Amino acid sequence: MAKGNSPHGLICARVRPNTITAGLHMLLPAALFALGVALAVFYLPRTGGRVCWARSIRKTLPVALFALAAYFQGAPVLLVAGLALSALGDLALSRPGERAFLVGMVAFASAHIAYIVLMATLGSGPQLAQWPLILLMVGLGLSTEIWLRPHTGALKWPVRGYVVIILGMGLMALGLPEARIVALWGALLFVLSDLVLSVETFVLAPDDPRRKWAGKIVWITYIAAQIGLFWGLGAL
């Protein structure tokens, strides 16, 4: 036994404060992320609930906690911004009225732009060899002029702009390195989530029974998308 390291001294030794701080710093992001996932699961059966502030808070908290987790993890600023703007979009879209809807659309469009810029710094953009996927996304965007635009009324230009931005994020994700493939799946799930949301919001009638399932599909794919982006763009 080394000099000065008596059994009594080893038993009574205390963890230094900076060691405790470092441990808490490592645990806090994981705890915030886990709580966000748990609250997202808790909200799933309530996706079709009545509009109220309690429901708005429940819907906003999961991704807001992801943003806090990314911040305390030291993730890229653009990832934190994308998650925070998404949480703002969740809050706005949970409120009634066209104005709240537009605020939510702008918030999510801004989140996608943050993700696009971050992906541009991490990847090389879509490659020519990926032309089938590129054509598929471009075709999906053009198809919205047939099945979506006629239902959007005065919102047709904001919706068109949003379609361009969300598909731009999907295309930019194609250029991410293989090590960040989780982020690619996150981006593609985001496109799918918004696709179903657009059908639910603009195409389905208010009394259509499929709206109940559409809301759940939107929430599952959306949370999975944010987890994929959280993980693949630098927070895990």
What does this structure look like?
It is a single chain. With 236 residues, the protein is mainly α. The chain has one domain (30-235). The chain contains nine helices and no strands. The radius of gyration is 21 Å and the shape is globular. Mean pLDDT is 90; it is low at 7-15.
Oligomer: single chain
Distance between the termini: 40 Å
Strand content: under 5%
- Unreliable spans are 7-15
Largest sheet: none
Q: Which sequence of SSEs, written as H and E, runs from N to C?
A: HHHHHHHHH
Tell me the domain tally. Answer: 1
Helical content class: over 70%
Q: Structural class, please?
A: mainly alpha
Shape: globular
Based on CA atoms alone, the radius of gyration comes out at 21 Å
Number of strands: 0
Total DSSP helices:
9
Structure summary:
The protein is mostly helical.
Attribute tags:
hydrolase activity, transmembrane, Lysoplasmalogenase, 236 residues, mainly alpha, single chain
List the helices and strands and how they pair.
Layout: H1 7-12, H2 17-43, H3 53-73, H4 77-93, H5 98-122, H6 131-147, H7 156-173, H8 181-203, H9 210-235
Protein name: Lysoplasmalogenase
Organism: Profundibacter amoris
Keywords: Membrane, Transmembrane, Transmembrane helix
